Every structure is written in structure tokens, then in C-alpha cells.
Amino acid sequence: FSQLQHNNCISFCRICVITLAEAHPLLQNGKTIKSINYQISANCSRLQNKVSGKSKRGAQFLTELAPLCRISSSDGEEYTIYSCIRGRLIEVNENILSNPAILQEKPSTEGYIAVVLPKFEESKSITQGLLTQKEYEEVLLKRLNSSS
Amino acid sequence: MSSLTEKDRPIVQLLLNTGTCPRCILRFCCVGSQTLYRHPYKDLMKDLKEFLKNNQEKEDTVCSDVVDPPCKRIRLEHTEEGPGDLNHNGALQQIPSVNDGNTAMEDSAVKVCNVCLGILQEFCEVDFVKKVCQKVNSADYQFTSFVFSVSLPPQLSVRERAAWLLVKQEMGKLGLSLAKDDIVQLKEAYKWIIHPQLSEELGVPADGKSLFEVSVVFAHPETEDECRFLATACPDCFKPAKNKQSVFTRMAVIKALEKIKEEDFLKHFPCPPSSPKNLCVAVEIQCNNGAVFVAGRYNKYSRNLPQTPWIIDGERKLESSVEELISEHLMAEFKADSFNFSSSGREDVDVRTLGNGRPFAIELVNPRRIRFTAEEMKGLQQTINNSSDKIQVRDLQLVTRSAIGRMKEGEEEKTKTYSALIWTDKAIQKEDIAFLDDIKELKLDQKTPLRVLHRRPLAVRCRIIHTMQSEYIDEHHFRLHLKTQAGTYIKEFVHGDFGRTKPNIGSLLNRTADILELDVESVDVDWPPTLDN
Questions:
Q1: Comparing C-alpha atoms, which of A31, A40, A138 is closest to residue A81?
Q2: Nearest one of A138, A135, A107 to A18, comparing CA atoms
Q3: How many CA atoms lie less than 13 Å away from A41 in the CB half-sphere?
Q4: Are the beta carbons of A76 and A98 closer than 8 angstroms?
Q5: Predicted confidence (pLDDT) at residue B61 exceeds the cutoff of 60
Q6: Considering only CA atoms, which of B505, B509, B507, B479 is closest in space to residue B491?
Q7: Which of B454, B498, B512 has its CB closest to that of A17?
Q8: Secondary structure of residue B121 in the 3-state scheme
Q9: Is there a contact between B456 and A112 if contact means CB atoms under 8 Å apart?
């Protein structure tokens, strides 16, 4: 299945906060986080993202498949967290670097991954393309049923 | 005409013969007596002719010299511009002598002046004054003085220049000079004549500092193209206009006239200037009153009212607004065109403003009524308060523009106090929150809240919570009173905004906290002055 469905997007008037969704493997029992890396390629570190002004000039532009960070768990697995949203990267959460535990303890609040601002024209279609909590749960149920 | 002397004679003769009106003639003779200009047109014309005649009777030979100077060229009709060569002796039209001139000049129709295009003629007359005053009276303004501003067509500056060059040349023959600054300005002479008439008709004095402005715009379509030659001579003075408005503004024309050399000017513009067929036209007569400022403090009792109208894509999302509820009645009473509302900070839609309220000021633009007694202001305050239970105002008063600065300084510098109703996920006991009361000068680092991040730059703000006081309610609720530095985001201090405000109530209590209600208890600015309401 697509990893894209493991992201949660909370939006307030166009601003989108990317977090791990409930069913993400990292949030399941037994997983411990070994490291979080915002350096997604030789040339690109999300930590170097700098925005200025109201229109957030200078921001790294993200497409749906743009990686935000890579997280390794102590059992040797590596997970890439994708943006899932087109827009300007406003900030990544540096708190999870110093305190990875909050990513698992409070994934939907303090453990958020990133804040993204979509283009004004695209913001409506983006919000419409997201699943509601209920729809998400239905998708999960379908997956369980199809795999069993 | 005692103001004129011998040396003025050739000038008067020259200008009269080339189609210049008596008042412009006086200007070029540097006559500074205001009362003289106010004499009726006919009298001035008669006096000038008398002045010339007197001399003629005495010295015939001198007269003929004066009558036929080599530089003159009369154009009684508007013809094409040709080279206006002052020293050209040939091709002169027959210039009527003063005696013949009497018949030509005393036609039933007054010829339009070739320098002022009628400004110092028709537009000094009682009919025009009545027209202006009619406009003023029908506009129904309240005023105690007026300032009269006049916008003249740019061609007048060009013609003035041509006339000056003509006169300068003539005086040069007598060994006399004429500085441009010695000539009485057209606008100045016009105001000498029209101010007393307007003042009498309106019943108030003219005052340069008056807030009530009567403005007239004059145009002369017939000669509009006269300025064009300046564009080829001094192209850098004329920048292309943003709107469709003409590039040939008064300022641009004056600038070009300063730059252009005398010879170039004379090559392109007739000297003396041609006599126009028509007068100027008064295109616009407008009235405008300077803005008045009303200040006060407002309380907000609704949790469903925005500060300013909330309109998205042309659709109003919430009914009314603080500014509309206050300004509506002021607009009606002051009969203003529009308003500008500002306040010492503001609160969210769902936040109440209690206590003494928040200072605000409203600029009322172009008000018809400007004078209100303290009683009337109190009455206005009552009307506003009776009209809505969502807001209430106090200390409503007229203030000066400069007073607004006091309000804005309050926004950044003064403290505010709040009352917040807080929910916690895990149970709390009285002891768990008691320590909050002892925390003084708590430093916060607040990143720009997510809820405003789409329209504000990303930044970190350091803000201080000066004091706190808690009130236990039950295991999941307590009320917190806080006194904070201006610019502190209270809601984010309570719920933490995804950990982007640190510390926050959640982190201090080691729980998840959220804010259910927020009230502003006081805005600690001591402006505007308190009135006994």
C-alpha cells in the first residue's frame, strides 16, 4: 500500500500541519525511534529551510512525494515521511530531534513533523482531497479485511 | 489712475492693444494695491484709457512712437503658431491707434484676455461668486471659515511667460528691467478680488488654515494643445501618466518653463499670446471638510463578533462587526463620506472585552457637521449604547489627529489583563495549580501561531507573563487571571500551539490543556481621558 496514507494533515485557514497518522508503523507498539534525519539528500536539508515575510519567500517547495524526513527505528527499519501536500515548507519540528519520544507520545500535537502552506489557488482542492477521520477509519478497515 | 506712472505708459498701451485685460495690465505694471483690482471691470478699463489719453493729448509725437513699436503683431483671431520674432520688422498688421482702438475695444462683448483667459474678468464677477456660494450652501456643510483653492489650466503659465517676455522687451527699450517676481501673481490677484466677495456672501472669513475647502478647477479646452511644444523642447519634464490623465500637469509645465531657453520659447510660442475666442470654464466646484476624530473606549459582550467586517469571496461570514456598530451612528450624525477605525490592539471574534474597555479612535472623512457640544456627544454615546447589546462605548469625545499617537503607543507598550477558562485532560486538585500564583515575570517564546501563520511572517516572539492568579473550579477546569506584556498570545500560552509556545500551561502542569473561554479584563492605557459618563 501507499505510504502516503500514513500522514495526517490538520489544517487551519490554509496552513497544514503534517503529522503521523494513527496506523503508521512507528506508532505501533514495540517500536522505538533510533534517529530522525531531516537531511533528505546530499543537497537538501529540511533544517536549512528559511522563510521570510508574509508570503514566506525562500521556502523549499514541496510536491506530494517530497520527503520531509527519514526515521530509523531500533529494529533496523527506515521510514521516509512524505509531504503528501503540495506547497511551501514553512517549518519542520526541531523538537522531535531533541526529544524523539514526543513523536510517539503526542503524534498529533507536539510531535508534528512539518508545517506546509499550499498555494492560495490550490488550498481548497487540497483540503477536499483529504480523508476525514471517518473515511480514514473505513480505509483501514478495508485494508484489514483484504489482507486477512 | 495714480498707481501708474510715465514709465508704465508704453506697457499699458502695448498690452491693451494686444488683447490683455485691465487687471492683468495692472499686474504687469507691478501695481500692488489690492483695492484697485476690486474696482469694477468697466471702471478699470475707462481709467486705463483715460491714462493713455492724457498723455496722447499732451505729446503727439511720443504717442505715435508708442503706438507703433516695431515688435507688435496683433492677432485678433486664433491662428496657427508661427515664429514670434520680436525683432521682425516686416509683415506687421496695421495696428489701430488708441483713438481708433476705442471703437474696437468698446464693442459690446468684452474680449477674452489673452493672458488670464477670463479668470480676472468674468470669474471675478458677482455671478460667478453667486454660483460658487450656491454650490457651497446646497452642499450643507458646517464651517466657520473657508479656504478657497483654485486650479488653473497649465496654458496660463505659458501665456504669462509670453506676456512677461513681451513686456520685458518693451521695458528694455527704456533701459528698465522687469523681474518675473515683481509681477503680481495671477492667483494672488484673483484671491484679492474674490475672497472678500465670497466672505461676504458666505458670512465667514477666508483663512488659509481653514479645514473647510472650497475648490474650483478651471479648464480652457480651446488652448489645451498650447503646451505641447514644451514636450519636444524639454522631454524629460513630462513623464507618461499612469492613468489617462494628461501629461501636461501644471507642475510639469512650470518645470519645463524654468528650463527652456528664451529663444527656444519664442520660436514655438506667439508673443504676444493670441486672443482666444472663449473664456475658461469652471469644470468643478467642490467642497471638502477636514477629517474629525472621535475617540472612546468600547466593551465587547459578544463571543460572536469580529472587529472588522468578515467577508470572504464577497460573502459575509458573520453578521456585523465592532467597528460598524460604533461607526454607523457617528457616520449618520457627522454626515461623513467614510470612516477609518483604529484601536489599541484588538481581540478575537470569540473573546469579550470587559472592564474599562479598549481605547479606539474613528476618523470621519469629509464630515458635513463638525461641531458637537459635550452634551451632544453624550447623547451620541447613549444612542450607540441603546442600539446594541453586543458592544457598549464610554468616554466618547472629539480629539485631535495628534492624539491618535497616544492610543497606538498603548498597543505596543502597555500591559493587558485577561481571564481564561482552562480545561485539562488529566484531573487536577487545588494544590496542583496553586504554584502558578507564585510565578512572576514568566518569559515565553512564542512562534507565530499556526492560526495566523498564513498572513504573518514566521518569527519567534519573547513575551512576559507578569503575574497569574488561579481559581480552582473542578477536576478538569480552573480559571486563570493573567497580567501580560502587550502582544502576548494568550490562547497559545494555554494550549501550547503544537509545542510552539514554550512554556505553556500544559507544560507547566504536565498535562494537556485547552482554553474554553477568554475575556480581556483590562487594557492598561490611560487614554482617551475619562469623562464622567
A1: A40
A2: A107
A3: 5
A4: no
A5: no
A6: B505
A7: B498
A8: coil
A9: no
Rounded Cα–Cα distance for residues B279 and B256 (Å):
25
Count of other CB atoms within 10 angstroms of residue B429 = 9
371-430 in chain B: CB under 8 A from chain A: none
The 3-state secondary structure of B71-93, one letter per residue = CCCCCCCCCCCCCCCCCCCCCCC
DSSP string, B293-346: EEEEEEEE--SS--SS--EETTEESSS--HHHHHHHHHHHHHT-SEEEEEESS-
The answer, as to whether pTM is greater than 0.80, is: no
The CA-atom distances, in angstroms, between B240 and each of B188, B246, B247, B252 are: 31, 9, 6, 11
pLDDT at B78: 37
- Specify the long-range contacts of residues B437-441, CB closer than 8 Å, at least 24 apart: B437/B468, B437/B469, B437/B470, B439/B465, B439/B467, B439/B468, B440/B466, B440/B467, B441/B465, B441/B466
By CA distance, what is A123's nearest residue in B? B454
Contact between A1 and A36 (Cβ < 8 Å): no
pLDDT tens digits, B136-166: 999 999 999 999 999 999 999 999 999 999 9
Whether residue B92 has pLDDT greater than 60: no
Tell me, rounded to whole angstroms, the distance of Cα A24 from its chain centroid: 11
Backbone Cα Rg of chain A: 15
Chain A interface includes B458 (CB < 8 A): yes
B510 touches chain A (CB under 8 A): no
pLDDT digits (tens, 9 = 90+) for B237-250: 777 766 656 778 88
The cell for B73 is 503683431
Q: What is the pLDDT of residue B242?
A: 66
- Digit-coded pLDDT (tens) for A88-120: 999 999 999 999 999 999 998 999 999 999 888
Q: Which of B348, B395, B437, B526 is catalytic?
A: B348
Tell me the C-alpha distance between A51 and A59, whole Å. Answer: 5
Q: Which of B469, B463, B466, B465 is nearest to B436 (CA)?
A: B469
Three state DSSP letters for chain A? CCHHHHEEEEEECCEEEEEECCCCHHHCCCCCEEEEECECCCCCEHHHCCCECCCCECCCEECCCCEEEEEEECCCCEEEEECCCCEEEEEECCHHHHCCHHHHHCCCCCCCCEEEECCCCCHHHHHHHCCCHHHHHHHHHHHHHHHC
Q: Give phi and psi for B250, each to the nearest 5.
A: -60, -45
Q: Write the ipTM.
A: 0.88
Q: How many helices (H) and strands (E) does chain B have?
A: 18, 15
B348 is catalytic: yes
